Amino acid sequence: MEKHLDELQPFFEPRGVAVIGASAQPGKGGHIIVQNLLRCGFRGPIYPVNPRGVKILDLPSYPTIDECPDPLDLAVLIVPREAVPPSLEQAARRGVKYAIIASGGFTDAGDAFGLELDARVRRIAAENGIRYMGPNSIGTIDAGSGFITSITANDPLPPGNVSILGQTGLLASGLTRMIADRQPFGVRRIACLGNKNDLNEIDFLHAFADDDRTGAVGCYLEGVKNGRDFLAAARATAQKKPLIVLKGGISESGSVAAASHTGSLAGSAAVFHGALRQVGAIEAESLEDLFDLLSGFGNLPQPKGPGLGLVSITGAGCVLGADYAERFGLRLPTLQPATIESIGRVCPDWSSIRNPVDMWPAIERNGVAEAYRLIGLAMARDPGIDLLILTTTLFDGSFFDITPVIAAIREIAPEKPVATVLIGGAAEENRAWTVNARRAGAATFADLSRAIRVLGTMAQIPHPSGESA
Amino acid sequence: MEKHLDELQPFFEPRGVAVIGASAQPGKGGHIIVQNLLRCGFRGPIYPVNPRGVKILDLPSYPTIDECPDPLDLAVLIVPREAVPPSLEQAARRGVKYAIIASGGFTDAGDAFGLELDARVRRIAAENGIRYMGPNSIGTIDAGSGFITSITANDPLPPGNVSILGQTGLLASGLTRMIADRQPFGVRRIACLGNKNDLNEIDFLHAFADDDRTGAVGCYLEGVKNGRDFLAAARATAQKKPLIVLKGGISESGSVAAASHTGSLAGSAAVFHGALRQVGAIEAESLEDLFDLLSGFGNLPQPKGPGLGLVSITGAGCVLGADYAERFGLRLPTLQPATIESIGRVCPDWSSIRNPVDMWPAIERNGVAEAYRLIGLAMARDPGIDLLILTTTLFDGSFFDITPVIAAIREIAPEKPVATVLIGGAAEENRAWTVNARRAGAATFADLSRAIRVLGTMAQIPHPSGESA
C-alpha cells in the first residue's frame, strides 16, 4: 500500500510548488494561495507564476512555469478555465507530475465549452502521466508542514492526527477557520476533492490509511466514483484507524442537489448506511456530529470498556448524563468503596456519594479547581471506570484552569479518555476553555449529549489497532 | 385562570423586595442578589436585610425585615438553613405573603435536622398564607423589569417572549450567561423551582400560559409532583402557546440521579413520552435542543406550511439541507418560473437554478450582501415557499452585514420564518452574527441539521393561536 502514500506526498509536502495564476492583487484566489503558504509557515520553495513577473508578497514571480527553478514537483492552477489546458501542458513540459486544478467551470458548469475543456485536461494529464486533483478543487492542507492551497484566507491549523477528505471547499475555508479558532482537534492533512476527474476519495483514503501520523480519518462525500472500490478502501482504512463518514445526498432531493453540486450520483441511502456499517466505518449525522466524532477519536485513547465516570457541577448534568449513558451505550458503574471514601473526604458528611457525582458540595468546601482535581483523581483510580467526563458551567466563582486537573488525571490513568463539557457560558469563555482542555489532553463538547454520544460510539467500536488513536 | 398569573406576579415584578441575608461581602450569594438587581436594572425598592445594618452596594440595609418600609411584597431568604424558619416567621409578621427560599439543606440534604426544618417551614407558610418557591430555589428572573434573584452574577438578559421554568439552577446561572452573551432569543421570565414544597411546575405553567407577553414556554423537569395535574397544566399551556419540555431522569439510572438531585420521582420514560405528545407538548432531546427549539419558537412566526426555501453559500449546504428536509418533515418546493427568472438575473448564464439555491456564482457577480438580498427576496416572494433558511460560512470575502437582508425579507413576507445558519467560522464572529440576525428578526442555528429540525417541528405542530409566537 505504501505507493498510495508516496504517490500523494507531493500534494501535502511538495519539494517545490508553482502557483500558476498567482496575483499581486489582495483578495484574488491567486494571491490568497501565496499569502496562506507564507502565513501558515510552508518552508518549501514557492514559485508564483505571473505573466507580468511582478513581485507577490515579496516573492519574485516567474512569467511562465518554465522559468521556475528546481526543485518543483507540484503545480497549482488558478487561472481562467480556458487557460487551464495550456497551463497544464506547460507544467508537463517542465516535468511536473502533480497538479491541483483550482479553476472551475468544467463538468461542474456543464456547458459545451466546459465539457470540451474537461476532455482536453484529461488527455493532457493522461499523455504526460500527471496525477491531479480537481478541476474545481480547493486542494490540500498539511498542518505540520504549513502547506496549504486554500483560496480563502486561513490561519495556521493546530497540528495533530486528524485527516479529512471530502467534496466541499468548506473543509479548507469556513471549517478550517473554526478549527484554527476553537481547536476541537489537531489536524494532520485535509484534502478537498473537487470534480474528481483523476484522484478521488479512494486514493486519499488509502493514503490516510497508510499514513502513520494520521490517527483518525473524517470523510464528507456526496457521491462515490465506484461504490465497490470505495467500500474496499473504506474497509481497508477502518481496519487500521477510526473512519468517520458523513454522506450527503442520501435523500432523493439531496441526491439531485449533489448532482448539481459536484456531479455526483449519490445512490440509495439504506444501501449506503448498511454498507458503511459492514465495512466498520462510523456514520456521522451532520457536519457538527462529524467534528464531534473527530474531536473524540482524534484526542482520546480508546476506552477499554463502557464504564462512564461522570463528575458534574450541576445536578441536572448528573440526571441528563445518566439518561444519555443509557441511550448511547455507556454504563455508570457503582463506585468502589475506596473511591467513595476518597470523595467523601472532600464532601460534607451529609452528601450521598454515587456515580454520577454531583460535586457542588465539594466545591463549596474546597474551591472549584481542587474539587475537580480530587474527585477526578478518585474516579480515575476506580478500576470500574473506563472513561471520565467532567461537566461544568461558567459563572463567576466557577471559573478555573482545567489544565492541571486534566494533566493530573492523565498522569495516573493515561489509558482512560477524559472529556469536558461546558454548559452555557459566553462564547469567548467557551472557546478558551476548549483550547486549554484539548491542549491538556481532553476532548471538549458543547453539550453533554454530544459528549456521551461520541464516547459511547468510541466504546462500542473496537479500535482497529487495539491502541490509542 | 387569571388568578395564577396575578398570584405569581410578586415573584417577577414585586412592588418591593427584602433580601434577608444580604451581605456586604462580594462573592457571597446574599451580596450577588443585590448586585444583580442593581446591574439588571430593577427599579422597584430593594431592602437588604442585614443584622449589622451595613451599607450594601450603596443601599442602606435594615437589621430586620420589620424595619423595611412599604411597599414590600416579596422576601428572598438566603441565610443558613437553621435561620430560615425564624426569618420566614418575621416576614410573616411583617405581612409578606410571598417568599423565595434560596437556602438549601432541607429535603435536598435529607438529614434529620433538614427534614425537621422543612416541616417547620411548611407549617409557618401554611399558618400565614405564604406562597413560596423552594427551599433550594435560585428563584426568578424577569428580563423586562430587571428583577432577578439568581445567586450567581448575571448580566441583563435580552427582553423577549420566551419563558422558562425548571428544576435546575443552571437556568439562572450558566445558561443565562449564555443567553446574555449569544442572545439566542429574548427572555420574558425564568423560574427555578428548587425543592417545590409549595409552588411547583403546575403553578408556573399556568402563569406562563396566562401571560400575554409569553410567546413560548420552555421547561426542564426531573420529576413532577402530580402526573395527572401536570399533564392537565401542560395541555392547557400547549393549547395557548408552544410548550417545549426536556425531561431528565427518563432512564433508570437517570431516575436515581434525579432522586438525589431534587428528590424527584421520575417515572417511566415511555409513558412520559407518549403523554407529552398527547397533550401537545414538544419534547426536547437535550439542553441544546431545548434552546434551539426556543430559539425557533421564540423568534419566528409559525410557518404556514412545510415548503422550505434554502439559500446556501456552499454546495454541501444544499445537499445536506435536502437530506435534513426529508428527515425532519420539510419539503423543497419547485420554484415558480418568476422566481427562477429573478434569481437568473443575478447569476451567470450557465447556472442551473433550483431549490436549494447554491449561490456562490451570484456572490462572485454581485458581492455577498447583494447576492443574499436579491436571492432571498426572490425566494420570499415565491408563493410555494413557507420558510427560508440562509446558510453561509465565514471567511474573508464572505463577511457581510446580514441585518438589511433579513429586514428586507421580513418586510415583504413578514409571515415567513427566516433562519440563518453559519457553518464554521470563529466563535466570536459567530456570536456577533447570531446577535445581529436575531435582532433583525431571524433565528440562528449552529448547524443546518439543527435549523431544519426546529423549523420542521414548527411546521408540523399546529400553532395554538394560529398566529405568530
Key terms for this structure?
homodimer, 469 residues, Rossmann fold, 2 domains, seven-stranded mixed β-sheet, 17 helices
CATH level-two architecture of the largest domain in chain A: 3-Layer(aba) Sandwich
* Rg for CA atoms of chain A: 25 Å
Domain tally of chain A:
2
Query: Beta-sheet strand percentage of chain A?
Result: 15-25%
Record field, number of beta strands of chain A: 17
Q: What characterizes the major β-sheet of chain A?
A: 7 strands, mixed
Distance between the termini of chain A: 20 Å
Number of helical segments with 4 or more residues of chain A: 17
Q: Which segments of chain A are poorly predicted (pLDDT under 50) over 5 or more consecutive residues? A: none
- Order of strands in the sheet with the most strands of chain A? 7-6-9-8-10-11-12
Mean pLDDT reading of chain A: 92
* Residue share in helix of chain A: 40-55%
List the quaternary state of the chains.
Answer: homodimer
Please tell me about this protein's structure.
Two copies of one chain form a homodimer. Chain A has 469 residues and is an alpha/beta fold. Chain A is 40% helix and 16% strand. In chain A, the strands form three sheets. The first copy, chain A, has a seven-stranded mixed sheet with strand order 7-6-9-8-10-11-12, with helices on both faces. Chain A has a five-stranded parallel sheet with strand order 2-1-3-4-5, sandwiched between helices. A five-stranded parallel sheet of chain A has the order 14-13-15-16-17, sandwiched between helices. In chain A, α13 crosses α14. Chains A and B meet through α5, α8, α10, α11 and α16 of A and α5, α8, α10, α11 and α16 of B.
